[in-house]
Structures
1.
Amino acid sequence: MSLGRPEWPEVGELVVATIQQIVGYGAYVRLDEYGKEGLLHISEISSRWVRNIRNHVRENQKVVLQVLRVDPSRGQIDLSLRRVSKDERRKKMEDWKKSRKAETLLKSAAGILKISEEEIFEKAAVKLLDRYGSLYAGLEAAAKRGLEALTEAGVPKRIAKTLAEIAREKIVVRGVTIHGVLELTSMAPRGVEVIKGTLLELKKVAKENGTEATLYTLGAPKYRIEVNAEDYKKAEAALEKIITTAQSSLSGHDGKFSFTRE
């Protein structure tokens, strides 16, 4: 099943790959998300001198690499290991595992409903990707809020019912969640960029306060925000700072902000 992924990765993108063959000048890898072969040159394995490649990577090992160059006409992809930080590696692997799990759950739903993977991709996956940014985030929302989280994204009720049941059974939701609706507008010349920057800043503020914020559009200028935390005290504190940040960000760019608690 392809979740709308392009045929080739983009330069600068982080990818999950499997080491296939180690040679004197580096290692050939298989990009798990694209099904293509790439080269990890010895000079891109470590920032230090590499005497023995096998001291750094081994066959069948899963690694996170950064894409340096892509040449579709020659079928070549050059990759780097040394340019990927520990935090980037951890997050990418976590996202990749979630993506694989989400695809598995979607295929399971297709089997139960006796429909093709192509049909469930078109009627559910595409809509969840558009609404939540990732398939896993959409299924996680279903595990938290049930059927409504899927139907409000445009998933047909019959499919949504089965997906919600699977999500609640297979996805463990920890902690607490509070949510509401943000309304952000800016009349500045670069108002769209201001809004995008503000939304990114809100997620950063949530993380800095030990929580996680999920944002998705309800149709501009309205955005739903969900703040996940270990307990309500931490979630409420983070939400308060998120609201303050949004107000401050927009006030300096000829903007308006409002928040409605759900």
2.
Amino acid sequence: MSDSLHIVCPHCDAVNRVPADKLNAQPTCGKCQKPLFAAQPLELDSARFIRHITRNQIPVLVDFWAPWCGPCRTMAPSYAQAAQLLEPAIRVVKLDTEQAQELAAQYAIRSIPTLALFKNGREVARQAGAMDAAGIVAWTQAHA
């Protein structure tokens, strides 16, 4: 019997127990029956952000961004491409710092875009500035 991981559904936020050896088998949510991984960045609000970083037992990569930020918009396609390469081993999410100003302050986001990698609810790495998809993947895998 393999170890199970808790994975938060990107659609209904239910916590699912998924056998570690079945992450690549396109698991679906036990509550809403939708796929647990979409191979694209998940846009979160403050409440969902906390749930995803604290309840997922896989690392969570966060792009702290803002709609008015030119480098953020430039990096968005690369971040989406990185999501296709990183999931299901790593949950890839985006947090709009304009909509979640309290969280941006709590995590001391001073420049955007800023990538932060969380494991078990704790930040383990941070990188400010835009990167291409290969750079995002390499940086994330080096710290995951």
3.
Amino acid sequence: MSGTRVTDALTRLLDRAPTPEDFTSDARTPQLTARVGTWLGVCFLVAFLTGVWSHVAQLPNPLVPLPTRPIWLYRVTQGVHVAAGTAAVPLLLVKLWSVFPQLFRRPPTATRARLLDAAERVSILVLVSSASLQLVTGLANSAQWYPWSFSFRATHFALGWVAMGSLLVHIAVKLPVIRSAWLGPEVVPDPGAVSRRSILRVTWAAAGIAVVSSAASGVPGVRHLSVLATRSGTGPGGVPINKTAVAAGVATTATDPTFALTIVGGRTQVHLTRAELEAMPQTTATLPIACVEGWSATGTWGGVRISDLMALVDAPTGAAVLVESLQRGGASSRSRLPGNVAADPQAILALTLAGERLSLDHGYPCRIIAPNRPGALQTKWVNRLEVQA
């Protein structure tokens, strides 16, 4: 009896629910859905590829060491990643609006067709859920807001594969519809109705405004238009500060007058005060620093080449270097310089920025700066360098 009541209740609910035909907007056409969906797919593909690159760049032991040239490569890929993800937000909203009536499509009566319809709906649910979560967590990361306890980097990376996999399945299922929408005849709206082209223009404009206002702080010339960016693009030496010494818990230890950098190579150890580091041959390098939140800036850094420091402990050519910070705990407390990075003449232990002593929040007494590296790996407040065999 209870089963019959449930069936009757579901039947009444379906009878009251709207059907796709109840949504009369002429703008909701396959042509609109296909065009917005295509650009949304491009944004997701670009974000996925640049995201994989960023993930590999942050691995401590990548199978193939990433190149140090061009020095701006990570800056560009990370900026494109954030821009593509930001542009995808209005595109996804318009895409969901265009297909919303299909949510109320009645399932077919034939068993096989019903199963296929259910499978398609489940795949769409996975796609929409993973895509939405990717964009929401990505924007939250750009704002450095983390209202969750899980690892953003690991989760974002895993969800990227889920979103791309479900997107490829969706494209395969809908390919005939997509092809027909792109190549088929144009649907002419009724006079006075909002046209597909008008909605597309508004969508492109919304995507452009979203990118410029929130993700262009690292682009010279339009930085002042990025009013929603979490970083202004300025700071001591013209470089923003992501984490302060107080937040890292190193304000006292970093200013301790007894500080000495420890360099370890096998059984050999060398201890250098900041004054002794300043007495070594100095070099300068004009390098960008780029963070996963999307901001970037270029600074002129001065200090000692990593290769010169490694020579003090007779490190073999091409040896990797483990970098440790005064900061205790957290992903930025240590990093690894692959052999090709440690040997690069522009990989330095920075003591100055823009000709001035490194500020405490920028990593005083010394920090790592190397070409084509994620900002999270440009370790600040360095107190130990250890040669790895």
